[in-house]
Amino acid sequence: MKRVYVNEQWCLGCHLCEYYCAFANTGEKNMARALKDIKIQPRIRVEEGNDVSFAVSCRHCREPLCVKACISGALQMMDGVITIDQDKCIGCCTCILSCPFGSVALSPDGHAAQKCELCVQTAAGTPRCVDGCPNNAIVFEERG
Amino acid sequence: MAIRYIYAEYEITRNYDRCIACRVCERQCANEVHEYLPEAHKMVADEAKCVNCHRCVSLCPTHALKIVKSDNTYKANSNWSQKNMNELYRQAEAGGVLLSSMGNPENFPIYFDKILLNASQVTNPSIDPLREPMETRVFLGSKSVEIERDENGQIKDNLKPHLKLNLPVMFSAMSYGSISYNAHESLARASQELGTYYNTGEGGLHADFYPYGGNTIVQVASGRFGVHQPYLEAAAAVEIKIGQGAKPGIGGHLPGKKIVDDVARTRMIPVGSDAISPAPHHDIYSIEDLSQLVYSLKEATRNTKPVIVKIAAVHNVAAIASGIARSGADIIAIDGFRGGTGAAPTRIRDNVGIPIELALAGVDQRLRDEGIRDQVSIVAGGSIRNSTDVVKAVALGADCVYIGTAALLALGCHLCRSCHEGKCNWGIATQVPELIKRLNPDVGYKRLVNLLTAWRHEIEEIMGGMGINSIESLKGNRLMLRGVGLNEKELEILGIKHAGE
Q1: Which residue, among A7, A8, A10, would best test binding to B if mutated, counting the most B CBs under 10 Å from its CB?
Q2: Please, what are the averages of pLDDT over each run of 10 residues along chain B (501 residues)?
Q3: B22 neighbourhood in chain A, CB within 8 Å
């Protein structure tokens, strides 16, 4: 299955992936209107320090701890993609605690968890962070 | 300083309705032009530091930025232009030689733009390159004029070493040091994929790029940086650099801060030391001296590689080229006055040398008149901007062209002409690690391949239109060219007729 991978050698720490992620998940057509004057809460985050930077988002683990930990059945794995049904989520944050990558967080409204779903539900259809990366540091590919 | 004499040349216009304060402009500007004001959640810019490289404009996700020429003006004066005044202020302040980068940007004639191409109508019908074979392959090197046969009547192979190019375009000399590792990797990989050559410049060949040796031309310049036996052996051809179009008669000076670890090792000089290439080769003061170096290099490579001699296009270029052809060189590269550079004294760059179109036509004609045109191939460089420039250069007599600036543009360069500051925001003309990584060679080499693939298609289309199916039939075919708006003398030198004739 194709997954999002990050090559820190080419990550510039420009944070554009975060903005493209936040934009993709608003469903808006215009980025300026979607993100003007708001503090974004993207599902991909750039970690940086000591001259190294790289973006981190859900790894879509083959044996996902978050899905195991979910007490409401909101998190589920479909065709390898781990998605969350925000209507079922009760905001207990167990998934956030169990994710070893820190890739699950509360959604902006604070009532449910959110995570990268590889843009399967967004208008883009393919991960927007990948298209928006100016240096091919984020790729969407099959790797065994 | 208390008095700021020079007003910023460009202004950054930010559309605040679009700006989402994502700070990508701030993070991507090595000149620290943009700043985020957290309390106001707002971006601001100090254009005094802006070099107009367009990195921020290109990366802004909401298209909120544009850079415009400032309309701040001194009292209008046709003689003392704003540029003249600013340059004078700069020198009065610093007391130094003005430095510039990339090619001569001044308003001199561009002959390529005053030459029009022919096409077939009715007779000698045009050829459709999509349906019929079209040859863009060229071979560079000394051609045998005489056909010799052995006792059995078989043709003897007396051909000297040649370079085989799939299209008549090569990447010109840009040293590792003046451009980054990633820029070099992009050029090397693109050359291999395209079946052409790139040129190390005088910075030596990085150990990682020896596998691309078959597509590498190595340079031996006046500083002899990075020249050793394996370097010569790795290459497909060796180029002796006598001059460069951007700075004829001037040596090179790569500042110590660009001589970082790897660059120093490749050039074989200490880290942080200035790399100074003398203006002349101290062992070349005549064609006979040049000949000695040509044959030394041929011997060092066991006569397996062609030797190129690169000169700047200057007033006596035809006579000089004739001498070079007689020195034993296989290929002559001529670099016109628009040719690029990582740093050159402004006055030299903007006032020395002649246009490549005139130099090329003059050299080709002279060598033909003297009956020695077959002894050498001619490579024309110095601002080949597109496929029609290539076609016109070939029709004026070039075997192929060198592109430097065009290749850098493909890699992202926006011609801000600030290479000499070493803070290239596009990761090309810099040795700063966090800037170098901005040029991912996976992306860069693909863009170079795309560029030349597009040019090849266009060249085939143009040749087809002329009813020509091989680039060899176009070479020196000046009947395919007509001048517009040129005077008698210019037409005479170019060896072409005026449109309508």
Answers
A1: A10
A2: 87 96 96 95 93 97 96 94 95 94 95 97 92 96 90 91 97 95 97 98 94 97 94 97 95 86 93 92 95 97 97 97 97 97 94 98 98 97 97 98 98 95 95 95 97 98 96 96 97 97 92
A3: 15-16, 18-19, 35
Name the strand (E) or helix (H) holding B333.
strand B331-335
A57-71 in b/e form (b: 16+ CB < 10 A) is: bbbbbeebbbbebbe
Both structure tokens of B462: 């143009």
Residue B485 has a CB neighbour count (10 Å cut-off) of 10
Closest-CA residue of A relative to B22 is A19
Q: What are the E-state strand segments in chain A?
A: 2-6, 45-49, 52-56, 75-78, 81-84, 105-106, 113-114, 138-142
Q: Which of A15, A18, A135 sits opposite B440 (nearest CB)?
A: A135
Chain B touched by A139 (CB under 8 Å)? no
Q: B173: which strand partners?
A: B199
Q: Which of residues 27-86 of B touch A (CB under 8 A)?
A: 27-28, 41, 59, 61-62, 64
The nearest alpha carbon in chain B to A9 belongs to: B437
Q: Which residues neighbour B77 within 8 Å (Cβ) at sequence distance 6 or greater?
A: none
* pLDDT over threshold 90, residue A35: yes
Measured from the Cβ of residue B67, the count of other Cβ atoms closer than 10 Å reads 20
Tokens read off for B467: 């009813």
- Domains of chain B by start residue, with CATH: 10-96 (3.30.70.20), 169-472 (3.20.20.70)
Question: Please, are residues B56 and B33 in contact by the beta-carbon 8 Å criterion?
Answer: yes
Domain A1-57+119-144 has CATH 3.40.50.150: no
* Close Cβ partners of B113 (under 8 Å, ≥ 6 residues apart): none
Instruction: List the one residue out of B422, B442, B421 whose CA is nearest residue B432.
Output: B422
In chain A, where the domains are located: 1-57+119-144, 61-115
Give Cβ neighbours of residue B406 (< 8 Å, ≥ 6 apart): B384, B385, B386, B451
pLDDT at B146: 85
Strand partners, A45: A56
What pLDDT does B124 receive? 87
- Asked if residue B277 lies in contact with residue B201, where contact means CB atoms within 8 angstroms, the answer is no
Phi, psi torsion values for B468, nearest 5 degrees: -115, 135
Cα–Cα distance measured from residue B301 to residue B267, given in angstroms and rounded to the nearest whole number: 20
Task: Give dist(CA B317, CA B324) in Å, integer.
Answer: 10
pTM of the entire predicted model: 0.95
Q: Which of B252, B255, B261, B258 is nearest to B274 (CA)?
A: B255
Give the distance from residue A118's alpha carbon to the nearest chain B alpha carbon, in angstroms.
20
Q: What is the pLDDT of residue B256?
A: 86
CB contact at 8 A, B365 and B319? no
Which residues are registered as beta bridge partners of B199? B173, B217
Overall fold of domain A61-115: Alpha-Beta Plaits (3.30.70)
Rounded distance between C-alpha atoms, residue A107 and residue B408, angstroms: 43
pLDDT at B1: 61
Residue pair B140/B161 in contact (Cβ under 8 Å)? The answer is no
Q: What is the pLDDT of residues B192-207, one digit of tens each?
A: 999 999 999 999 999 9
A73 reaches B (C-beta below 8 A):
no
Binary contact (B437, A35; C-beta < 8 A): no
